[in-house]
Amino acid sequence: MSDQDISSNANSRVLKTYQEARLQNIENLRKLVVDAAATLLQEEGPEAVTVRKVSQKMGCSTKIIYNLFVNKEGLAQQLYLDGCKLLANEFEGTQQAADPKQHLHNLGEAFWQFGHRYSSYYKLMFGGAFADFKPDEESLNGTVTAMRQLLTVISNAQKQGLIPGQYDTELVIRIFWASLHGVIHLYMGGHLGDAQSAHAVYRQTLSLIVSSLLPDNR
Fold first, then answer.
1. Choosing a second label site near 89 at 20 to 30 A (CA), which of 9, 15, 82, 131?
2. Whole-angstrom Cα distance, residue 31 to residue 19?
3. Are 57 and 40 in contact (CB under 8 A)?
4. pTM for the complete prediction?
5. Which helix (H) or strand (E) holds 106?
6. 193: part of which helix (H) or strand (E)?
7. How far is CA 168 from the centre of its chain?
8. CA distances in angstroms from 119 to 70, 171, 185, 188, 213, listed in the order given
């Protein structure tokens, strides 16, 4: 191998390393921006998450954020995906139960806790807090992944004949989710009183849904 070949290979390795480092730096910067936006989201609510306020918190120009995310909706999508991870963590930390009724109660309670603990994420994901943001396919897939445990419990109950067969799995999940979301949404809108009163309504709603899906006489 000639000195020229050795030099060429060395330069190639340096170039590759530089490109990888540059990509890594961009990814690190994206994460820092999302972290800053997430802090604003939790501390000040969805209305505080603007490109200008995030750039101020980062101490950088708005141009940098636009280059990384194109617009506010691009940043909202990353926050949505982060919210999916938080929701998944809530479900994964839910106590397992052999009885599907109890398991559904546990998952329903986990959904309330997510909405209560991460109310700003909840409003972004399910409450229309960002009027111009509509979840894309990746975001919706993140929601499906987050709710995998709910899918598993309902699907298994159907296979055991515990849930009436005229309903398909997707429909059952939508009924379950929509009913619980309705209570949380009303609470966040100030229609159900304080958290304790709203939680009592939520628990009763959850019990009615679970009992209708899994009646005791089956």
1. 131
2. 18
3. yes
4. 0.81
5. helix 100-117
6. none
7. 24
8. 26, 26, 10, 8, 28
